[in-house]
Amino acid sequence: MEQNVRKPSKTELSIEPSMKAHRKQTRSKLIAALSVLLLSSPVASLHAAWYQSTGSAKVINGQIDKARKKAVEEAVKEALLFSGASVTSTQQVTNGLLTQDMFMVRSSGVVNEIETVNESILNGELSITLRADIFAEDRQCFTTGYQKSISVVNFNIQHQEQAQVGQLYQLGQVVSKTIFNKLHSQSTNLNVRSYTPNLILPAVEQPQSQQLKFNEIKEISRQSDSQLVLSGSLTDLSLGKANNQISQWLTGAYGIRFFEMQLSLHDGYSGELLQSFNFQSDAVWDLDPKDKINIHSRQFWLTQYGQMIDNTLDKAINELENIAQCVNSKAYVIDANSTMLRLNLGSENSVNIGDKFKVLHQANFVDQAGHTRPHFIISPYKVVVSQTYANSAVASTEDQSYLANIQIGDILMPVVHN
Q1: Which of 15, 109, 262, 271 has the most CB atoms around its CB within 10 Å?
Q2: pLDDT tens digits, one per residue of 171-183
Q3: What is the Cα–Cα distance from 191 to 184, expressed in whole angstroms?
Q4: CA-CA distance, 364 to 362, in Å (whole number)?
Protein backbone atom coordinates (compact mmCIF):
# COMPACT_ATOMS: atom_id res chain seq x y z
CA MET A 1 0.00 0.00 0.00
CA GLU A 2 1.54 3.30 -1.09
CA GLN A 3 0.74 6.74 0.15
CA ASN A 4 2.40 10.12 0.35
CA VAL A 5 3.92 10.62 3.78
CA ARG A 6 4.18 14.10 5.23
CA LYS A 7 7.79 14.86 6.02
CA PRO A 8 7.85 15.69 9.73
CA SER A 9 9.68 18.69 11.06
CA LYS A 10 13.11 17.88 12.40
CA THR A 11 12.14 19.82 15.51
CA GLU A 12 8.59 18.55 15.91
CA LEU A 13 7.91 17.53 19.52
CA SER A 14 4.73 16.91 21.50
CA ILE A 15 5.08 17.10 25.30
CA GLU A 16 2.26 16.49 27.75
CA PRO A 17 0.92 19.73 29.38
CA SER A 18 2.20 18.63 32.79
CA MET A 19 5.76 18.71 31.41
CA LYS A 20 5.65 22.12 29.68
CA ALA A 21 8.27 23.47 32.03
CA HIS A 22 10.78 21.04 30.54
CA ARG A 23 9.87 21.78 26.91
CA LYS A 24 12.62 24.26 26.10
CA GLN A 25 15.30 22.09 27.69
CA THR A 26 13.95 18.96 25.96
CA ARG A 27 14.01 20.57 22.53
CA SER A 28 17.48 22.08 22.85
CA LYS A 29 19.22 18.93 24.06
CA LEU A 30 17.69 16.42 21.68
CA ILE A 31 17.61 18.66 18.62
CA ALA A 32 21.23 19.69 19.18
CA ALA A 33 22.32 16.11 18.66
CA LEU A 34 20.01 15.57 15.70
CA SER A 35 20.92 18.86 14.02
CA VAL A 36 24.64 18.12 14.07
CA LEU A 37 23.89 14.68 12.66
CA LEU A 38 21.78 16.09 9.85
CA LEU A 39 24.35 18.69 8.81
CA SER A 40 27.06 16.07 8.49
CA SER A 41 25.00 13.25 6.97
CA PRO A 42 26.00 11.76 3.60
CA VAL A 43 23.88 11.95 0.47
CA ALA A 44 21.01 9.45 0.36
CA SER A 45 21.67 6.30 -1.60
CA LEU A 46 19.52 4.23 -3.92
CA HIS A 47 19.58 1.47 -1.30
CA ALA A 48 18.48 3.70 1.57
CA ALA A 49 15.12 3.19 3.28
CA TRP A 50 13.25 5.06 6.00
CA TYR A 51 12.48 3.21 9.25
CA GLN A 52 10.18 4.75 11.85
CA SER A 53 10.42 3.32 15.36
CA THR A 54 9.38 4.19 18.88
CA GLY A 55 11.30 3.77 22.13
CA SER A 56 10.06 4.29 25.68
CA ALA A 57 11.42 4.39 29.22
CA LYS A 58 10.09 5.12 32.71
CA VAL A 59 10.86 8.55 34.19
CA ILE A 60 12.30 7.76 37.63
CA ASN A 61 12.72 10.48 40.25
CA GLY A 62 12.09 13.15 37.62
CA GLN A 63 15.19 12.17 35.61
CA ILE A 64 13.78 12.98 32.17
CA ASP A 65 17.17 13.16 30.43
CA LYS A 66 18.08 9.65 31.56
CA ALA A 67 14.71 8.28 30.41
CA ARG A 68 15.08 10.09 27.07
CA LYS A 69 18.49 8.52 26.48
CA LYS A 70 17.10 5.05 27.11
CA ALA A 71 14.11 5.70 24.80
CA VAL A 72 16.30 7.08 22.01
CA GLU A 73 18.66 4.12 22.34
CA GLU A 74 15.77 1.67 22.08
CA ALA A 75 14.25 3.42 19.03
CA VAL A 76 17.56 3.75 17.14
CA LYS A 77 18.59 0.17 17.84
CA GLU A 78 15.25 -1.18 16.65
CA ALA A 79 15.34 0.85 13.42
CA LEU A 80 18.94 -0.08 12.62
CA LEU A 81 18.59 -3.76 13.41
CA PHE A 82 15.45 -4.10 11.29
CA SER A 83 17.21 -2.28 8.43
CA GLY A 84 19.83 -5.04 8.39
CA ALA A 85 22.70 -2.97 9.78
CA SER A 86 25.37 -4.91 11.62
CA VAL A 87 25.49 -5.00 15.41
CA THR A 88 28.76 -3.02 15.35
CA SER A 89 27.23 -0.28 13.19
CA THR A 90 24.17 -0.15 15.44
CA GLN A 91 26.31 0.34 18.53
CA GLN A 92 28.37 3.05 16.80
CA VAL A 93 25.34 5.05 15.72
CA THR A 94 23.52 4.69 19.03
CA ASN A 95 26.53 5.65 21.14
CA GLY A 96 27.48 8.46 18.76
CA LEU A 97 23.97 9.91 18.77
CA LEU A 98 23.70 9.90 22.56
CA THR A 99 27.18 11.32 23.13
CA GLN A 100 27.15 13.61 20.05
CA ASP A 101 30.35 11.86 18.91
CA MET A 102 29.96 12.53 15.18
CA PHE A 103 33.12 10.65 14.24
CA MET A 104 31.51 7.54 15.69
CA VAL A 105 28.23 8.17 13.85
CA ARG A 106 29.87 8.86 10.48
CA SER A 107 32.22 5.89 10.76
CA SER A 108 29.22 3.56 10.88
CA GLY A 109 28.42 4.48 7.27
CA VAL A 110 24.74 3.68 7.68
CA VAL A 111 22.75 6.80 8.66
CA ASN A 112 21.76 9.40 6.10
CA GLU A 113 19.29 11.34 8.24
CA ILE A 114 17.40 11.14 11.53
CA GLU A 115 14.22 13.07 12.30
CA THR A 116 12.18 13.43 15.47
CA VAL A 117 8.53 12.62 14.79
CA ASN A 118 7.10 12.87 18.28
CA GLU A 119 7.99 12.88 21.99
CA SER A 120 5.51 12.58 24.83
CA ILE A 121 5.29 11.73 28.54
CA LEU A 122 2.22 9.91 29.82
CA ASN A 123 1.72 8.26 33.21
CA GLY A 124 5.39 8.61 34.03
CA GLU A 125 6.65 6.99 30.82
CA LEU A 126 8.55 8.92 28.13
CA SER A 127 8.03 7.80 24.52
CA ILE A 128 9.95 9.09 21.52
CA THR A 129 9.36 8.29 17.85
CA LEU A 130 12.25 8.70 15.41
CA ARG A 131 12.43 8.32 11.65
CA ALA A 132 15.82 7.29 10.24
CA ASP A 133 17.03 7.16 6.63
CA ILE A 134 19.36 4.18 6.70
CA PHE A 135 21.82 2.78 4.20
CA ALA A 136 23.36 -0.35 5.71
CA GLU A 137 26.54 -0.85 3.71
CA ASP A 138 27.81 -3.31 6.31
CA ARG A 139 24.75 -5.53 6.35
CA GLN A 140 24.71 -8.53 8.61
CA CYS A 141 23.84 -11.95 7.25
CA PHE A 142 20.85 -13.22 9.15
CA THR A 143 21.11 -16.77 10.42
CA THR A 144 17.40 -17.58 10.52
CA GLY A 145 17.84 -19.93 7.56
CA TYR A 146 14.68 -18.70 5.82
CA GLN A 147 14.69 -19.12 2.07
CA LYS A 148 13.71 -15.91 0.28
CA SER A 149 11.00 -16.35 -2.34
CA ILE A 150 11.97 -15.23 -5.86
CA SER A 151 10.42 -14.96 -9.31
CA VAL A 152 12.30 -14.71 -12.62
CA VAL A 153 11.18 -12.45 -15.49
CA ASN A 154 11.91 -13.09 -19.17
CA PHE A 155 15.20 -11.47 -20.26
CA ASN A 156 15.42 -9.16 -23.26
CA ILE A 157 18.07 -8.86 -25.99
CA GLN A 158 19.27 -5.27 -26.02
CA HIS A 159 20.48 -5.29 -29.64
CA GLN A 160 18.17 -7.52 -31.67
CA GLU A 161 20.33 -7.23 -34.79
CA GLN A 162 23.13 -9.09 -32.99
CA ALA A 163 20.88 -12.13 -32.69
CA GLN A 164 20.60 -12.39 -36.48
CA VAL A 165 23.68 -14.65 -36.75
CA GLY A 166 22.30 -18.05 -35.83
CA GLN A 167 18.76 -16.65 -35.41
CA LEU A 168 19.17 -16.43 -31.62
CA TYR A 169 16.12 -14.25 -31.10
CA GLN A 170 14.76 -16.50 -28.32
CA LEU A 171 18.04 -16.67 -26.39
CA GLY A 172 16.85 -14.18 -23.75
CA GLN A 173 13.87 -16.36 -22.88
CA VAL A 174 15.98 -19.54 -22.93
CA VAL A 175 18.65 -18.01 -20.66
CA SER A 176 16.10 -16.69 -18.14
CA LYS A 177 14.26 -20.03 -18.06
CA THR A 178 17.59 -21.86 -17.61
CA ILE A 179 18.44 -19.63 -14.63
CA PHE A 180 14.99 -20.36 -13.20
CA ASN A 181 15.54 -24.10 -13.57
CA LYS A 182 19.05 -23.97 -12.09
CA LEU A 183 17.85 -21.97 -9.09
CA HIS A 184 14.97 -24.38 -8.61
CA SER A 185 17.23 -27.42 -8.54
CA GLN A 186 20.38 -25.99 -6.92
CA SER A 187 19.56 -23.04 -4.65
CA THR A 188 19.79 -23.37 -0.88
CA ASN A 189 18.93 -19.73 -0.06
CA LEU A 190 16.11 -19.06 -2.51
CA ASN A 191 12.61 -20.48 -2.80
CA VAL A 192 11.89 -20.24 -6.54
CA ARG A 193 8.18 -19.66 -7.06
CA SER A 194 7.47 -18.28 -10.52
CA TYR A 195 8.78 -17.73 -14.03
CA THR A 196 7.12 -14.94 -16.04
CA PRO A 197 7.72 -15.53 -19.79
CA ASN A 198 5.38 -12.86 -21.17
CA LEU A 199 6.86 -9.77 -19.53
CA ILE A 200 10.29 -8.28 -20.25
CA LEU A 201 11.90 -5.65 -18.02
CA PRO A 202 15.17 -4.06 -19.16
CA ALA A 203 17.99 -4.47 -16.66
CA VAL A 204 19.34 -0.96 -17.26
CA GLU A 205 17.69 1.67 -15.05
CA GLN A 206 16.21 4.63 -16.91
CA PRO A 207 15.08 7.59 -14.75
CA GLN A 208 12.09 8.44 -16.91
CA SER A 209 10.62 4.97 -16.45
CA GLN A 210 11.66 4.40 -12.82
CA GLN A 211 8.19 4.80 -11.33
CA LEU A 212 6.66 2.54 -14.00
CA LYS A 213 9.29 -0.10 -13.29
CA PHE A 214 8.70 0.18 -9.53
CA ASN A 215 5.02 -0.51 -10.08
CA GLU A 216 5.68 -3.38 -12.51
CA ILE A 217 8.11 -5.03 -10.10
CA LYS A 218 5.62 -4.77 -7.25
CA GLU A 219 2.84 -6.19 -9.42
CA ILE A 220 5.03 -9.14 -10.48
CA SER A 221 5.84 -9.70 -6.82
CA ARG A 222 2.16 -9.64 -5.87
CA GLN A 223 1.10 -12.02 -8.63
CA SER A 224 3.97 -14.45 -8.06
CA ASP A 225 3.82 -14.19 -4.25
CA SER A 226 7.58 -13.51 -4.21
CA GLN A 227 9.81 -11.24 -2.15
CA LEU A 228 12.49 -10.92 -4.86
CA VAL A 229 12.21 -10.34 -8.61
CA LEU A 230 15.07 -11.09 -11.01
CA SER A 231 15.14 -9.38 -14.41
CA GLY A 232 17.88 -9.27 -17.00
CA SER A 233 19.17 -8.20 -20.40
CA LEU A 234 21.57 -9.76 -22.89
CA THR A 235 23.61 -6.68 -23.78
CA ASP A 236 26.16 -8.10 -26.26
CA LEU A 237 25.82 -11.10 -28.60
CA SER A 238 28.03 -9.72 -31.34
CA LEU A 239 30.42 -11.72 -33.50
CA GLY A 240 34.06 -10.70 -33.39
CA LYS A 241 36.44 -10.39 -36.32
CA ALA A 242 36.02 -13.39 -38.62
CA ASN A 243 38.89 -15.82 -39.15
CA ASN A 244 40.54 -16.00 -42.57
CA GLN A 245 39.43 -18.83 -44.86
CA ILE A 246 42.47 -21.04 -44.17
CA SER A 247 42.02 -20.79 -40.38
CA GLN A 248 38.30 -21.39 -40.76
CA TRP A 249 38.95 -24.50 -42.90
CA LEU A 250 41.44 -25.87 -40.33
CA THR A 251 39.48 -25.12 -37.16
CA GLY A 252 35.85 -24.90 -38.28
CA ALA A 253 35.56 -21.64 -36.31
CA TYR A 254 34.04 -18.49 -37.79
CA GLY A 255 35.44 -16.21 -35.07
CA ILE A 256 34.87 -15.20 -31.46
CA ARG A 257 31.33 -14.46 -30.30
CA PHE A 258 30.67 -12.38 -27.22
CA PHE A 259 28.14 -12.93 -24.46
CA GLU A 260 27.37 -10.12 -22.02
CA MET A 261 24.50 -10.28 -19.54
CA GLN A 262 23.21 -7.77 -17.00
CA LEU A 263 20.99 -8.93 -14.14
CA SER A 264 18.91 -6.84 -11.72
CA LEU A 265 17.68 -8.17 -8.38
CA HIS A 266 14.75 -6.20 -6.96
CA ASP A 267 12.90 -6.15 -3.67
CA GLY A 268 9.43 -6.98 -4.95
CA TYR A 269 7.66 -5.50 -1.92
CA SER A 270 9.14 -2.01 -2.35
CA GLY A 271 10.23 -2.14 -6.02
CA GLU A 272 13.75 -1.11 -4.96
CA LEU A 273 16.82 -2.29 -6.88
CA LEU A 274 18.93 -4.35 -4.45
CA GLN A 275 21.82 -5.39 -6.67
CA SER A 276 22.88 -5.41 -10.31
CA PHE A 277 25.37 -7.83 -11.85
CA ASN A 278 27.29 -7.78 -15.12
CA PHE A 279 28.81 -10.89 -16.71
CA GLN A 280 31.11 -10.81 -19.74
CA SER A 281 32.62 -13.72 -21.62
CA ASP A 282 33.30 -15.01 -25.14
CA ALA A 283 33.89 -18.26 -26.99
CA VAL A 284 34.57 -19.59 -30.45
CA TRP A 285 31.52 -19.58 -32.74
CA ASP A 286 31.94 -22.77 -34.73
CA LEU A 287 28.52 -22.85 -36.40
CA ASP A 288 27.78 -21.57 -39.88
CA PRO A 289 26.59 -17.93 -39.52
CA LYS A 290 24.00 -18.55 -42.23
CA ASP A 291 22.37 -21.46 -40.41
CA LYS A 292 19.35 -21.13 -38.15
CA ILE A 293 20.35 -22.63 -34.81
CA ASN A 294 17.98 -24.56 -32.58
CA ILE A 295 18.96 -23.08 -29.21
CA HIS A 296 16.89 -25.71 -27.40
CA SER A 297 19.01 -28.53 -28.84
CA ARG A 298 21.90 -30.39 -27.22
CA GLN A 299 23.91 -29.61 -30.35
CA PHE A 300 23.90 -25.89 -29.47
CA TRP A 301 24.63 -26.34 -25.77
CA LEU A 302 27.54 -28.70 -26.51
CA THR A 303 29.27 -26.11 -28.71
CA GLN A 304 32.01 -23.98 -27.15
CA TYR A 305 29.66 -20.99 -27.19
CA GLY A 306 26.82 -22.93 -25.54
CA GLN A 307 29.11 -24.33 -22.85
CA MET A 308 30.48 -20.85 -22.18
CA ILE A 309 26.93 -19.53 -21.64
CA ASP A 310 26.15 -22.43 -19.31
CA ASN A 311 29.30 -21.73 -17.26
CA THR A 312 28.38 -18.04 -17.09
CA LEU A 313 24.91 -18.91 -15.79
CA ASP A 314 26.48 -21.08 -13.08
CA LYS A 315 28.55 -18.06 -12.00
CA ALA A 316 25.37 -15.97 -11.93
CA ILE A 317 23.67 -18.56 -9.70
CA ASN A 318 26.60 -18.41 -7.26
CA GLU A 319 26.42 -14.61 -7.16
CA LEU A 320 22.68 -14.69 -6.50
CA GLU A 321 23.20 -17.26 -3.73
CA ASN A 322 25.80 -15.07 -2.06
CA ILE A 323 23.58 -12.00 -2.20
CA ALA A 324 20.53 -13.93 -0.98
CA GLN A 325 22.38 -14.92 2.20
CA CYS A 326 22.44 -11.27 3.30
CA VAL A 327 19.03 -10.10 2.05
CA ASN A 328 16.59 -9.48 4.89
CA SER A 329 13.86 -12.12 4.95
CA LYS A 330 10.46 -10.47 4.53
CA ALA A 331 6.90 -11.71 4.33
CA TYR A 332 3.58 -10.19 3.33
CA VAL A 333 0.48 -10.20 5.48
CA ILE A 334 -1.99 -11.97 3.18
CA ASP A 335 -4.88 -12.21 5.67
CA ALA A 336 -5.56 -10.67 9.06
CA ASN A 337 -8.21 -10.24 11.74
CA SER A 338 -8.18 -9.02 15.33
CA THR A 339 -6.56 -12.16 16.75
CA MET A 340 -4.36 -13.67 14.04
CA LEU A 341 -2.68 -13.07 10.70
CA ARG A 342 -1.43 -15.19 7.83
CA LEU A 343 1.92 -14.59 6.11
CA ASN A 344 3.20 -15.77 2.73
CA LEU A 345 6.21 -17.72 4.04
CA GLY A 346 5.82 -21.34 5.05
CA SER A 347 7.56 -24.65 5.57
CA GLU A 348 9.17 -24.49 2.12
CA ASN A 349 10.92 -21.34 3.37
CA SER A 350 11.97 -23.18 6.57
CA VAL A 351 9.43 -21.37 8.78
CA ASN A 352 8.66 -23.39 11.92
CA ILE A 353 6.07 -23.25 14.69
CA GLY A 354 7.31 -20.92 17.40
CA ASP A 355 9.19 -18.59 15.05
CA LYS A 356 8.70 -14.90 15.85
CA PHE A 357 8.09 -11.99 13.47
CA LYS A 358 7.73 -8.24 13.88
CA VAL A 359 5.03 -6.34 11.96
CA LEU A 360 6.01 -3.29 9.88
CA HIS A 361 3.63 -0.94 8.09
CA GLN A 362 4.80 0.04 4.61
CA ALA A 363 4.18 3.61 3.44
CA ASN A 364 6.50 4.41 0.53
CA PHE A 365 6.76 8.05 -0.46
CA VAL A 366 8.07 10.11 -3.37
CA ASP A 367 10.91 12.48 -2.48
CA GLN A 368 11.52 15.96 -3.93
CA ALA A 369 13.58 14.48 -6.78
CA GLY A 370 10.67 12.27 -7.82
CA HIS A 371 12.23 9.03 -6.56
CA THR A 372 10.11 6.49 -4.70
CA ARG A 373 11.64 5.74 -1.29
CA PRO A 374 10.78 2.76 0.92
CA HIS A 375 9.41 3.75 4.32
CA PHE A 376 8.68 1.24 7.10
CA ILE A 377 6.91 2.03 10.36
CA ILE A 378 7.84 -0.57 12.96
CA SER A 379 4.70 -1.54 14.87
CA PRO A 380 4.60 -2.67 18.52
CA TYR A 381 3.35 -6.11 17.50
CA LYS A 382 5.46 -9.24 17.71
CA VAL A 383 3.74 -12.41 16.53
CA VAL A 384 4.51 -16.12 16.97
CA VAL A 385 3.87 -18.78 14.32
CA SER A 386 1.29 -21.34 15.42
CA GLN A 387 0.62 -23.19 12.13
CA THR A 388 2.68 -23.74 8.99
CA TYR A 389 1.78 -24.73 5.46
CA ALA A 390 3.92 -25.08 2.32
CA ASN A 391 3.92 -21.39 1.35
CA SER A 392 2.13 -19.74 4.25
CA ALA A 393 1.88 -19.67 8.03
CA VAL A 394 -0.53 -18.49 10.74
CA ALA A 395 0.66 -16.32 13.62
CA SER A 396 -0.74 -14.42 16.60
CA THR A 397 0.63 -12.25 19.40
CA GLU A 398 2.56 -13.94 22.19
CA ASP A 399 -0.04 -13.00 24.82
CA GLN A 400 -3.02 -13.56 22.48
CA SER A 401 -3.82 -9.84 22.62
CA TYR A 402 -5.76 -8.06 19.88
CA LEU A 403 -4.03 -7.01 16.66
CA ALA A 404 -5.11 -3.49 15.78
CA ASN A 405 -4.44 -1.68 12.48
CA ILE A 406 -2.87 -4.72 10.79
CA GLN A 407 -3.70 -4.74 7.08
CA ILE A 408 -3.15 -7.01 4.11
CA GLY A 409 0.11 -5.92 2.54
CA ASP A 410 1.90 -5.09 5.80
CA ILE A 411 5.41 -6.49 6.08
CA LEU A 412 6.71 -9.07 8.55
CA MET A 413 10.38 -9.50 9.39
CA PRO A 414 11.85 -12.28 11.51
CA VAL A 415 13.02 -11.42 14.99
CA VAL A 416 16.74 -12.18 15.06
CA HIS A 417 18.54 -12.46 18.36
CA ASN A 418 22.04 -11.04 18.10
Answers
A1: 271
A2: 999 999 999 999 9
A3: 7
A4: 6
Give the chain's domains with CATH numbers: 17-134 (3.30.1660.40), 148-325 (3.40.50.10610), 331-414 (2.40.10.410)
Q: How far from the centroid of its chain's Cα atoms is residue 77's Cα?
A: 19
What is the arithmetic mean of pLDDT over 248-271? 80
What pTM value is reported for the model? Answer: 0.69
DSSP string, 67-102: HHHHHHHHHHHHHHHHHTB-HHHHHHHHHHHHHT-H
Check: CB of residue 303 under 8 Å from CB of residue 259.
no
Give me the pLDDT at residue 336, please.
92
DSSP structure string for 11-72? T-----GGGGGGHHHHHHHHHHHHHHHHHTPPPP-TT-EEEEEEEEEE--TT-HHHHHHHHH
Q: 17-31, 212-226, 293-307, 377-391: lowest mean pLDDT where?
A: 17-31
The angle formed by the CA atoms of residues 265, 370 and 262, to the nearest 5 degrees, is 25
Letter string b/e over residues 154-193, b meaning 16 or more CB atoms within 10 A of that residue's CB: bbbbbeeebbebbebeebbbbbbbbbbebbeeebebbbbb
Using one digit for the tens of pLDDT, what is the confidence trace for 354-400?
A: 999 999 998 777 777 776 677 888 888 899 999 999 999 999 988 87
Contact between 120 and 145 under an 8 Å Cβ cutoff? The reply is: no
> 326-367: per-residue pLDDT in tens?
788 899 999 999 889 999 999 999 999 999 999 999 877 777
Closest CA to 46 of 274, 361, 278, 366: 274
For 169-272, strand residue ranges (E) read 190-200, 228-236, 256-267
Q: Over the chain, what is the mean pLDDT?
A: 77
Nearest-angstrom CA–CA distance, 158 and 200 = 11
State the DSSP H helix or E strand holding residue 215, giving kind and residue range, or none if neither. Answer: helix 210-224
